[in-house]
Amino acid sequence: MIADQNESAYFSRYLHDSSMLVVGSPQNPAAREHDFVFISEKGTTSGQPLTYKSIHKIVDKFGEALGIKLHPHKLRHKWNEVFEDKAREHGLTPEKNEDLRKYAMGWVEDSKMASVYNEYQLAVTVADISAKTQTKAVPRLGDGHES
């Protein structure tokens, strides 16, 4: 949740005024030489992919506006969490899920990276199973009843 509307407006103006963030720019000849989406629009790097430092600065500003600590790699993890939930909702098999995840993340076919990002979902599943088991095994305290 955005802590302050003025801060949110400032951030929007910051991105717009600084022209740091442009999605696709076919008018810029340098942008046609690569397939990066986020490019610089100023100075000698105009049309070139944003540097890690620039992206980190933008993500930091988003985090500040939202009142949370945020960094680019967290976005990859969050995307994978959301992807996992949606894949389950759609009833995808684990194999299809992994194939789609590899494609979307740009990993090679024999990559094992999906297992790294799947650890969160495994932890959530284990916690859910543990909580259900505890609820059945341990009586509810304070009300004199057992589950």
Automatic annotation (TrEMBL):
Key words of the record: DNA recombination
GO molecular function, one term: DNA binding
Entries under Gene3D superfamilies matching the protein: Intergrase catalytic core
InterPro entries cross-referenced by the UniProt entry: DNA_brk_join_enz (IPR011010), Integrase-like_cat_sf (IPR013762), Integrase_catalytic (IPR002104)
Segments forming domain Tyr recombinase: 30-79
Annotated transmembrane regions: none
GO biological process terms, semicolon-separated: DNA integration; DNA recombination
Protein name: Tyr recombinase domain-containing protein
